[in-house]
Amino acid sequence: MKKLIGFLLMFALFFGLAACNGGDVDPTEQTQPTGTASITGVTPVTITVGDEFDPLDGVTATDTESGDVTTDISVTGAINLNTAGNYTITYKVTGSDGIEVTVNRTITVLTAEGCPVNQEKVNGICVPIEPTEIVIMHGAPYEVDPFHSSFSGTEQLERQQLQREVEERLNVEIVYRAYPANAAWGPSRVSAIIQSSVAGDHLADIYWSVSDWIQGLVNGDAIVPVDQYLATHGSNIHESYREVGSFRELVYGFGSGKLTVDSGLYYNADLVASLGVENPTQLFLDGQWTWSKFDQWATQVQTALSAQDEDSYALGGILALYAENMIPLNGGSLINRNTGKVAFTQNPALDTYSFLNTLYTKGVFELTPAYDAGSPQWQAGKVAMHPGNYWFINADNRWGNIAFELGFVPYPKNDTFTGEYVSPVSGVAVYHVASGMSAEKEALVFQVWNELQLWQTEEQMELSFELSLISRFDKEEYVEAYLAIYDKVYLELISAIGISPYSENGWRANVNGAIREGTARTVMDQIKPIYEAALEEYLNG
User: Fold this and answer.
1) Three-state secondary-structure class, residue 307
2) Strand partners, 224
3) Counting CB atoms within 10 angstroms of each CB, which of 85, 131, 191, 459 has the fewest?
4) Which one of 3.40.190.10, 3.40.250.10, 3.40.350.10, 3.40.50.720 gives the CATH number of domain 130-255+429-456?
């Protein structure tokens, strides 16, 4: 495992250096190694927007052995002759001795008025243009503001350098603000954003939010779609974010990176090992982690635990979480986005409720479960397995201080399910562009957000996630199991259509009792019309 970590860290360092350097040389540095070749005529140039410019005009290369090698010069770097700015191009030529000569050249493009970038002519004098303020509102600015004294993100120096460059080049001032006290979370945050929009005084230009709130923000005319930018500045946005940020076929939410599986089953690896039962992760890696095997494993664990302590259980956590994640592994969903149907009353869902009811009646589930951090019994090491999210592992208010080794295994598939592993995602953190701006300001705001991101290739994203897994898990087998399913996600709408899943008519609130009591079909049929009406409104307005 240590060898793997070392290799991946070196690999990540290579990627990081490549991303930072971008293959360019410091524009102020000119490298002319002692050798047979040399380049001349590359003095700085100042031109005006619209002027023609030939980068090879007046530039020559000679070699002491071969003579004139000007035709061998290669030029790299881009210049936009229609946009004022400071640009750098690089000249390279290889001498007969094999030594490459590299020289950088600065090209300054002035505005049509003859002023440097971000300046305008007033009374015949070029004066600086006041930068445009771009406000990004976030629930925890210290997570995203690289200049925050308590910044908790990664690559802080690189992000600071990038922000400075974006601010100078686009003549903007980027400001991060926390949501006000009246916009703490959920409905209060959505309401505050909408009210500021109605008043014509938006809280921010960019909002950090979650995908489940998109419908409310759109209906309140507080945010705008960004589809018109997706072929240009937004081309880096991964398809998974375009899907989760969509509402009525338009993209309102976006993010960097790509969505990964966040839900899984975590187990007390110390306890499981002491009981002498099979390792769940190994069962998954061997292709045996099915419902029947899950049933057998949980029963064996409960039998062993009951012999030691009658207050210990094989499974903990809320039944709804098991159902939500296992229904897709039986070929179903809660709300089928493709068909536009409420699906939690269909056979794949009903079969899942029935299976979980069978497990519950066997007594393998703890009697006083809790969401998120789990019950005191789970925290104390008296429950073998618990549903959870990836971020729980390091969070102090979840499992960051837990005293036992956490093992990971994906949810089990139905024995007859032949499809790919899939995991539902909802409530995904996304960004939005506020409404009410001019077309020019709106385009600038989206461009600024986009250019502040440290974009990665698919390979780099997978490597970064793997390194994150290695840093959080104690054993390579947990990493291997997670990587097998890490990007197998789909958007689940159960929380996005305007009904709180924990409300009186909410799916999660109702399915918990229905599974325990074996009345899932009846209870789900009762709330189905409520969800159908909400889904119709969500899809069609």
Assistant:
1) helix
2) 433
3) 459
4) 3.40.190.10
pLDDT in tens, 80-106: 898 888 899 999 999 999 999 999 999
**CATH superfamily of domain region 24-119:** Immunoglobulins (2.60.40.10)
- Size of the chain, expressed as the number of residues it contains: 541
Contact, 285 vs 480, CB < 8 A? Answer: yes
Residue 262 vs residues 325, 429, 491: alpha-carbon distances, Å: 11, 12, 12
Cα–chain-centroid distance for residue 419? 25
466-508 pLDDT tens trace = 999 999 999 999 999 999 999 999 999 999 999 988 899 999 9
Handedness of CA 275, 281, 286, 292 (dihedral sign): positive
Counting Cβ atoms within 10 Å, is residue 472 exposed (0-12), middle (13-18) or buried (19+)?
A: middle
CA distances from 372 to 393, 397, 398, 402, 485 (A): 11, 9, 7, 13, 22
Are 538 and 215 a contacting pair, CB within 8 Å?
yes
Alpha-carbon dihedral sign for residues 306, 312, 314, 315 = positive
The residue among 61, 78, 79 whose CA lies nearest residue 70 is 61
The tokens for 488 are 């197998």
* SS3 state of residue 299: helix
